[in-house]
């Protein structure tokens, strides 16, 4: 017993460790839906191939970690073999609540996406219902019963995104409280796992895994970083911000060489998004500080990306848009020229020189 407890504890720790390697899931992440079908036959008491019972089912589930999941499955059975006929197309319906354990991820670890081939254990309990309206069924207590399912899934994950999965599933289904003296093999005869009150089943299925909030159809490995690495990244971000803050000043130094000295009393600038020439709210707010009646010269610039022809055109449109806005505020625009890229550190600017 002690060895069993230790083994069980080690298993739980292994599952937990696997769960900690992936990003946290949101409520509707890692949900899948699938269909399956195949044949079942009574485990004992007759030749398997003479009593095949076709079935078709639907499964909806969710994976909570790369190892653990849960699903609801419902299968309809169409043949009466080897039992008495119920006189209905669907003889029996079994609905199960299942737990799933991905053995491949448990013992091999999760690699960031599903393996091409995986093996999982599926097990749970369910409720079975026998169709038909005969009073004889009711007298026999043969309408509903408690069931259990134990299966292995041999799954193949398909596609670049591993969103689709096909699987083959051998299983054994138990009628936990079947009566042994009814022609319908259902009823209440005490709850127990009895191979004489079971049938074996071989199904094949296909599953589609819906897209998650992380942009994939599966779990994503979490990028775990220690504090020293975080501090280093923050330092790099701070350095980049400082360099970016210097760039507008460098651009002004490049452009100022081409402007007459009397026009450089009060230079200012506004910035633009890459490839854009529209004035932002912040840009308009800055331009509003130029007094009505002031005289300005405007030079538009562009960043090094793109061809010289495109940069020249974009910089001119930027200068024109600034000029148009200032004119609407009563500012006198002496000149508005697009210069394209100015120097090697040019940002996306319009530099305004106020006389």
UniProtKB/TrEMBL annotation:
Signal peptide segment: 1-19
Recorded superkingdom: Bacteria
Membrane in keyword set: yes
Protein's name in the database: OmpA family protein
Species of the source: Prevotella herbatica
A Pfam family this chain is assigned to: OmpA
Keywords carried by this UniProt record: Membrane, Signal
PROSITE patterns from the UniProt entry: OMPA_2 (PS51123)
Membrane-spanning segments: none
Lineage: Bacteria, Pseudomonadati, Bacteroidota, Bacteroidia, Bacteroidales
Domain OmpA-like, residue spans: 259-355
């Amino acid at each position: 017993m002690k060895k069993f407890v230790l083994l069980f504890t080690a298993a739980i720790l292994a599952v937990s460790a696997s769960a900690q390697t992936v990003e946290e899931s949101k409520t509707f992440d890692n949900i899948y839906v699938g269909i399956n079908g195949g044949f079942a036959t009574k485990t004992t008491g007759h030749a398997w191939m003479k009593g095949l019972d076709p079935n078709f089912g639907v499964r909806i589930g969710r994976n909570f970690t790369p190892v653990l999941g849960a699903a609801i499955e419902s299968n309809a059975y169409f043949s009466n073999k080897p039992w008495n006929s119920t006189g209905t197309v669907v003889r029996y319906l079994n609905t199960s609540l299942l737990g799933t354990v991905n053995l491949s991820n448990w013992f091999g670890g999760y690699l960031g996406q599903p393996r091409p081939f995986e093996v999982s254990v599926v097990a749970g309990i369910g409720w079975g219902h026998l169709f038909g309206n005969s009073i004889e069924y009711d007298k026999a207590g043969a309408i509903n019963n408690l069931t259990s399912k134990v299966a292995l899934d041999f799954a193949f994950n398909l596609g670049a995104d591993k969103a689709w999965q096909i699987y083959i599933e051998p299983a054994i289904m138990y009628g936990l409280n079947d009566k042994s003296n009814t022609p319908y093999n259902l009823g209440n005869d005490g709850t127990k796992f009895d191979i004489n009150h079971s049938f074996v089943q071989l199904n094949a299925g296909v599953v589609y895994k819906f897209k998650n909030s992380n942009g994939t159809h599966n779990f994503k490995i979490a990028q775990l970083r220690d504090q020293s690495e975080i501090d280093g990244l923050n330092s790099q971000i701070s350095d980049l911000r400082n360099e970016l803050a210097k760039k507008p000043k460098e651009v002004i130094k490049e452009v100022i060489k081409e402007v007459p000295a009397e026009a450089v009393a009060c230079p200012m600038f506004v910035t633009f998004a890459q490839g854009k020439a529209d004035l932002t709210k912040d840009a308009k707010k800055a331009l509003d500080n130029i007094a009505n009646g002031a005289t300005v010269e405007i030079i538009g610039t562009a960043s090094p990306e793109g061809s010289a022809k495109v940069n020249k055109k974009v910089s001119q449109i930027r200068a024109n848009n600034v000029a148009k806005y200032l004119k609407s505020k009563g500012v006198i625009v002496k000149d508005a020229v697009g210069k394209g890229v100015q120097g090697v550190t040019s940002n996306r600017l319009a530099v305004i020189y106020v006389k």
